[in-house]
Design brief:
By secondary structure, the chain is of the alpha/beta class. 30% of the residues lie in helices and 24% in strands. The protein starts with a helix and ends in a 6-residue tail after the last helix. Bound molecules: hypoxanthine.
Length: 279
């Protein structure tokens, strides 16, 4: 086995006795959804610090733990706090949690994040279903020896974000009377926000929203054959659009303002996903 997947196995072994069930859905919480656990029936939590060989996030406001619980009837593992490339970790560390949740048994991955609006028709507080992504500005997490037993060396990326899952999100949003955007997410390394010229480039490349996470996680999960969906919360218009300076506070404020709606949407979608997977 490759060193990377041996490490995943090591992390798994160090906590397997504490994992209460085989999760079916893995949910990654972005900014503003951090307190999502209050919504659900929590069965167990595992602090990232307690996992041997696990990269631990350093960003303030990002708690680091796996939460195991039932969303409706769906056994889920929830990442409260992700690892970002800009923290200085290599890509294999950034996506290790995704591979670990797969190792636990999750075959559906639901990604959420905060992002800057690049599409001029978007506004702060909008939600965007991720239809596709651009990760050309960050290294691929698949660089290095390939673990052939889990996924192919040259991995097809034609439909990373599952059409059926996207349909569920559209339907749920409609039921809630919620306008929802659908577009392309572009990942930058961060940690600095983009310049206006970079944002213009992103738009010219066909991106609708920009952020510093998620794309690489989807790449790793796609390699593992997981079914993937993602929703971005547009917390601000990207640099140069509104004329105002960007701040982490603004991102947090918008995320907090719409978090109730976001949580309702996420819960509704996961319950529907249950119909696709065995529960
Ligand atoms: N750029 C990059 N990442 C972000 C932004 C942004 O404008 N807003 C929230 N995350």
């Amino acid at each position: 086995m490759t060193a990377v997947f041996e490490r995943v196995a090591g992390c798994y072994e160090s906590i397997r006795g504490r994992i209460p069930f085989e999760p079916q859905v893995a949910l990654v919480l972005g900014s503003g959804l951090g307190d999502y656990a209050q919504e659900i029936q929590v069965v167990e939590t595992i602090d990232y610090h307690d996992i041997e060989g696990f990269p631990v996030s350093t960003v303030s406001g990002h708690k680091g733990q796996f939460i195991f619980g039932y969303i409706g009837k769906v056994p889920a593992v929830i990442m409260q706090g992700r690892v970002h490339y800009y923290e200085g970790y290599p890509m294999e560390d950034v996506v290790l949690p995704i591979r670990l949740m797969w190792k636990m048994g999750a075959r559906v991955l639901f990604l959420t994040n905060a992002a800057g609006g690049v599409n001029l028709d978007y506004g702060p507080g909008d939600f965007m279903i991720i239809r596709d992504h651009i990760t050309s500005f960050v290294p691929s997490p698949l660089i290095g020896p390939n673990e052939d037993s889990v996924g192919p060396r040259f991995c097809d990326m034609s439909s990373v974000y599952d059409e059926e899952l996207r349909q569920i999100i559209r339907r749920k949003a409609k039921e809630m009377g919620l306008k929802i955007q659908e577009g392309v997410y572009i990942q930058t390394t961060g940690p600095e926000y983009e310049t206006p010229a970079t944002v213009k480039m992103c738009r010219l490349l066909g991106a609708d929203a920009v952020g510093m996470s998620t794309g690489c996680e989807a790449v790793a999960a796609n390699h593992l054959g997981m079914r993937i969906c993602g929703i971005s919360c547009i917390t601000n218009m990207a640099a140069g659009i509104s004329g105002r300076e960007l701040s982490h506070e603004e991102v947090g404020e918008t995320a907090a303002r719409v978090s109730r709606t976001f949580k309702t949407l996420v819960t509704g979608v996961v319950k529907e996903i249950a119909k696709l997977v065995r529960v």
